[in-house]
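Review form for a predicted model. The reviewer records the input and the model, then writes brief findings.
Reviewer: anonymous (R2)
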Amino acid sequence: FYIGTWASNVSYDSDDVYSYEHDIYFGYAGEAGDISYDIGYLYYNYDSN
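Model under review:
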């Protein structure tokens, strides 16, 4: 099981209303016999000040 977050400032152009990106992710990885798997979710959020 894993979970995490990531954040960064963003600047695409001078008229852009978004100032930062905040991501949240979680998932589960494992093996079943000879098969490995990783099932996860990632949420991207772009927001202004």
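Findings: The two ends are 32 Å apart (CA to CA).
Further findings: The chain has a mean pLDDT of 89.
Recommendation: see findings above.
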